[in-house]
Amino acid sequence: MDNVDNRPYWEYVAVLDNRTRPEHAQLHGLIYRYDDPFWASFYPPNGWRCRCRVNALSNYNLKKKDAKPGNSTGTLSQEMRLVSKKSGEYKPVTVYTDPLTGKKIAPDVGWSHNPASGLNDI
Fold this sequence. Notes:
Layout: E1 9-13, H1 22-27, E2 31-33, H2 38-42, E3 53-57, H3 59-65, E4 76-82, E5 90-97, E6 104-105
Antiparallel strand pairs: 1-2, 1-3, 4-5, 5-6
């Protein structure tokens, strides 16, 4: 956060090896401003043993990558997901719907937040 004036865009980076979850691989390369609602729920880690990270980018970096930041408007929603089969408990999770494929991606239950922001699920 100390450097958002110089690097206001964040890129989701997955490791992309045989241990990477398909959902995390699908998020790889998404770029949003640091204050986009996407990051309130999808800032890594997004589950146990998640090795994803965020790469902070400047305007220069975007030009060099020939990349344009997205906007998560209309792609985020809430769904109830099962926490425990034994207890039958459900909790809300923020879900990202890929605008190109329609596939729904969600962090593991209990991981749908940005631990550094102090924000609750959106």
